[in-house]
């Protein structure tokens, strides 16, 4: 036995004081230390990235702040209803953020309370249940709320400055926002705890499907209750009094977002009310206490269950057999690559959890299109044709975010199995193209459904429908190509969680490139569309050359954006040494 | 001391661990052998308090794990088969964190952490982020973390995976020295040579049931003096060599 071994095992036996077991701060310390160490990591162009992130964040903040500030100054100039409109706008904004927070907390709680890799270590240690709950609740709150806080900051700043909230206004806003973040976190975590206990074993996919349906239904219901489109059309009301009475009515008296809006607006009107803050903080306290009690009763059972394999036997279903048969003419290697991609996707619950957010995004998008006020006074023939064209930009954004979620991480997720792929007689070209098609075809189907659904709701002309289908098809290919290309250029091979890949630096660059692509395509097509709509209105014949240049140019840009990134990605993958 | 009574774990209709009764006294290094999927890891994870048993009880150092999990877990050190370490912590920070989970900090913990890292040749890496560690280095760090709080009982799943010969030797010496001081180790392994040279007693588990338990000499005498490999293959119904030939001929 080496001498140093004796030293290691020497010393008195520990007397564990249970009251001094890991504190909440100690449980959170790895996350804090990790956050501190992250900028010190061996990442390339760290300063460049930091500058870029800061610049983009700054521009976003300034834009939100500038727009809202102007709007609020305008509201301040309207007697009687100005303050009501500002209050209503704040209530609606906070209600939307509350909806996003609940959904985001459910998904995050599943990961932090049940799937996180550090849980084995923490649960095996003598950690007090309440401290574990507190640490994981705080972790869930921070993970699911940071983006909402980033969005809310310029909004609340604009309110404070335009209504001259004074020196203590930031404290008032913080006092309203903290419980607004804690309530959905406690509720979301409790709901996840119940769902994990109700569903058999590791059926997270089932749980998430239920959440997706509930969330989509909830969002639709929320919008139906609020009917925001009515506020945009005051002429739809029988009288000004009816309009004012709608503005005076709380969006929903029982939602914390309404209390927060009331609390903030009462301060800004120099008529500070305590009740909204009392309601917010007491509700947050009750939610956390109920969450803690549920955690004590159900957590260990749920955590134990969450480790059990839900599906021990996985058989190929009829769809899988059909795809396998359909792919047979393309050769065994391509067939197996495509089947592997499909199987991994459908069996990876972390991927599925992201579908929820996207499903809600699409539902909200279509729903908003349905209720756009496109009839009535001031809505011209021209506007009726321009809005479907603008719709293409929004559809492009939706596609870009989906591609960033599902196609972009493809190469990064291959990291741990790259040794297998690289040591096999597989060409990187085949791997990348199989990833491209597996990602692009569902994206194209979704894009076409979106365009047809919104086109029918908007009652677009045949010409605009044809333009929309043509453009969205090309854009889908281009965005998928960009996603794959940037995925290979900025891989994150060592990530723990697939959901973190789209929010990486490469993901940000991809989103910027996608926005640039959409802008170029829309600018190229805008002129021929404008000309065509104008000539239709004036009953003239449009210039064929103009149409060819515009649409041909857009097609060329899209094809270049499809093929060039994939070529770069193939070269990059061949050079990669891991 | 580890005591398992009627320990059972079911996943739906599948019984992973089937009513195990086992007692590992103080000062014993106990080996847990069995083929893949036999129920070794499930048993060890139940002892570590990570999985809840469907039935039965677990006592660690005389404390009922289900009745007083905090007190029972404070006696335990667990080394899982697929360990997770925070990538963005340094080795020293990780050890400090684990000690803190057991309510320990201060100079003694720092000293002990440094010694454990030195023992496994990790002292130069103490302030490097774990993300830069090799697989073997991570394994050494995890093993160090199981000793940092001086547990009474150590439960370890496949400890030798990824270790170089020197580290494997140190670990064997460490385990032996540890049990000589009256502590308990329960270890699962596929390396029969390790079980043969290291363990005081061995249990062989298959399909969730204990097929045999006892000292190696006792198992040998029951199997007409056969080696551990023969005993293992006989008890677990493996006909490895014949199967291998058939596969090659297929």
Secondary structure: elements and pairs:
The complex is a heterodimer of chains A (578) and B (250).
Chain A: H1 3-9, H2 24-37, H3 46-76, H4 82-115, H5 119-124, H6 129-162, H7 169-198, H8 204-226, H9 240-248, H10 256-268, H11 275-306, H12 318-327, H13 332-347, H14 349-370, H15 381-406, H16 409-413, H17 418-423, H18 428-458, H19 462-489, H20 505-537, H21 544-575
Helix pairs in contact in A: 2-6, 3-4, 3-6, 4-6, 4-7, 4-8, 4-10, 6-7, 7-10, 7-11, 8-14, 10-11, 12-13, 13-18, 14-15, 14-18, 15-18, 15-19, 15-20, 18-19, 18-21, 19-20, 19-21, 20-21
Chain B: E1 2-11, E2 14-24, E3 29-33, H1 40-47, E4 55-60, E5 63-64, H2 69-73, E6 76-79, H3 91-101, H4 107-119, H5 135-147, E7 153-157, H6 165-180, E8 184-188, H7 192-198, E9 201-206, E10 209-214, H8 216-222, H9 228-235, H10 240-249
Parallel strand pairs in B: 3-8, 3-9, 6-7, 7-8
Antiparallel strand pairs in B: 1-2, 1-4, 4-5, 9-10
- What string, H for helix and E for strand, traces the elements of chain A in order? HHHHHHHHHHHHHHHHHHHHH
How many domains in all of chain A?
2
Structural class of chain A: mainly alpha
How many helices of chain A? The count is: 21
Multimeric organization: heterodimer
Sheet of most strands of chain A: none
The count of β-strands of chain A is: 0
Uncertain residue segments of chain A: 10-19
Distance between the termini of chain A: 38 Å
What is the name of the CATH topology of the largest domain in chain B? Rossmann fold
Helix content of chain A: over 70%
Give the strand content of chain A.
Answer: under 5%
Biggest chain pair interface: A-B, 52 and 53 residues
Radius of gyration of chain B: 19 Å
Secondary structural class of chain B: alpha/beta
Percent range of helical residues of chain B: 25-40%
Main sheet characteristics of chain B: 6 strands, mixed
Percent of residues in beta strands of chain B: 15-25%
Q: What is the level 1 CATH name of the largest domain in chain B?
A: Alpha Beta
Rg value of chain A: 27 Å
């Amino acid at each position: 036995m080496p001498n140093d071994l004796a030293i290691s095992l020497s010393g008195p036996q520990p007397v564990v004081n249970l009251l001094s077991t890991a504190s909440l701060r100690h449980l959170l310390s790895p996350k804090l230390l990790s956050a501190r160490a992250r900028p010190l990591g061996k990442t390339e162009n760290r300063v460049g990235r930091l500058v870029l992130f800061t610049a983009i964040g700054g521009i976003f903040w300034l834009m939100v702040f500038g727009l809202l500030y102007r709007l609020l100054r305008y509201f301040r100039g309207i007697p009687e209803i100005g303050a009501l409109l500002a209050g209503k706008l704040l209530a609606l904004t906070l209600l939307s953020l509350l909806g996003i927070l609940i959904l985001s907390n459910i998904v995050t709680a599943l990961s932090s309370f049940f799937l996180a890799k550090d849980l084995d270590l923490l649960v095996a240690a003598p950690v007090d249940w309440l401290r574990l709950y507190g640490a994981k609740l705080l972790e869930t709150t921070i993970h699911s709320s940071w983006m909402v806080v980033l969005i809310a900051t310029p909004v609340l700043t604009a309110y404070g400055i335009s209504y001259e909230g004074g020196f203590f206004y930031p404290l008032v806003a913080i006092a309203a926002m903290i419980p607004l973040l804690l309530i959905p976190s406690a509720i979301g975590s409790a709901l996840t705890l119940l769902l994990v206990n109700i569903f058999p074993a590791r059926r997270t996919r089932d749980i998430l499907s239920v959440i997706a349906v509930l969330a989509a239904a909830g969002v639709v219901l929320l919008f139906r209750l609020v009917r925001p489109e009515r506020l945009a059309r005051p002429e739809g009301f029988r009288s000004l009094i009816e309009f004012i009475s709608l503005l005076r009515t709380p969006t929903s008296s029982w939602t914390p977002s309404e209390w927060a809006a009331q609390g903030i607006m009462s301060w800004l009107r120099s008529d500070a009310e305590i009740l909204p803050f009392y309601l917010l903080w007491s509700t947050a306290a009750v939610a956390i206490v109920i969450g803690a009690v549920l955690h004590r009763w159900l957590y260990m059972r749920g955590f134990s269950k969450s480790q059990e394999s839900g599906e021990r036997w996985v058989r190929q279903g009829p769809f899988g057999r059909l795809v396998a048969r359909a792919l047979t003419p393309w050769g065994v290697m391509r067939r197996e690559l495509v089947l592997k991609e499909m199987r991994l996707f459908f069996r990876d619950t972390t991927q599925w959890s992201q579908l929820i957010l996207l499903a809600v995004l699409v539902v909200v998008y279509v729903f908003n299109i349905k209720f756009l006020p496109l009839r009535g006074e001031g809505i011209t023939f021209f506007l009726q044709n321009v809005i479907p064209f603008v719709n293409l930009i929004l559809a492009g954004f939706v596609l870009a975010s989906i591609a960033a979620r599902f196609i972009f991480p493809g190469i990064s997720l291959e990291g741990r199995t790259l040794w297998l792929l690289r040591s096999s007689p597989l060409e990187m070209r085949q791997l990348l193209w199989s990833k491209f098609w597996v990602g692009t075809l569902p994206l194209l189907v979704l894009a076409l459904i979106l365009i047809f659904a919104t086109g029918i709701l908007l009652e677009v002309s045949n010409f605009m429908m044809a333009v929309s289908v043509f453009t969205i098809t090309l854009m889908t290919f281009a965005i998928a190509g960009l996603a794959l290309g940037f995925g290979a250029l900025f891989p994150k091979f060592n990530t723990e969680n697939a959901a973190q890949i789209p929010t990486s630096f490469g993901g940000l660059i991809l989103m910027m490139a996608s926005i640039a692509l959409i802008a170029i395509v829309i600018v190229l097509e805008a002129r021929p569309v404008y000309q065509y709509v104008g000539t239709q209105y004036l009953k003239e014949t449009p210039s064929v050359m103009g149409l060819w240049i515009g649409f041909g140019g857009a097609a060329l840009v899209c094809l270049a954006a499809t093929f060039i990134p994939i070529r770069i990605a193939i070269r990059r993958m061949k050079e990669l040494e891991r | 001391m580890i005591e398992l009574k009627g320990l059972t774990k079911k996943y739906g209709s599948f019984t992973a661990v089937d009513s195990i009764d086992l007692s590992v006294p103080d000062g014993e290094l106990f080996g847990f052998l069995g083929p893949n999927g036999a129920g070794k890891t499930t048993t060890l994870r139940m002892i570590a308090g990570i999985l809840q048993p469907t039935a039965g009880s677990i006592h660690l150092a005389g404390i009922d794990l289900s009745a007083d999990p905090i007190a029972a877990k404070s006696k335990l050190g667990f080394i899982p088969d697929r360990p997770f370490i925070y990538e963005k912590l340094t080795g020293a920070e990780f050890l400090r964190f684990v000690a803190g989970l057991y309510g320990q900090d201060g100079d003694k913990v720092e000293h002990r952490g440094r010694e454990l890292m030195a023992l496994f040749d990790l002292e130069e890496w103490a302030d490097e982020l774990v993300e830069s560690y090799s697989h073997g280095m991570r394994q050494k760090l995890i093993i160090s973390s199981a000793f940092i709080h001086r547990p009474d009982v150590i439960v370890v799943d496949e400890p030798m995976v990824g270790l170089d010969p020197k580290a494997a030797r140190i670990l064997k010496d460490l385990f032996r020295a540890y049990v000589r001081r009256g502590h308990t180790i329960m270890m699962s392994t596929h390396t029969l040579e390790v079980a043969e040279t290291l363990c005081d007693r061995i249990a062989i588990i298959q399909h969730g049931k204990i097929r045999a338990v006892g000292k190696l000499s006792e198992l040998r005498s029951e199997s007409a003096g056969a080696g551990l490999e023969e005993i293992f293959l006989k008890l677990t119904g493996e006909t490895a060599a014949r199967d291998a030939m058939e596969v090659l001929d297929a």
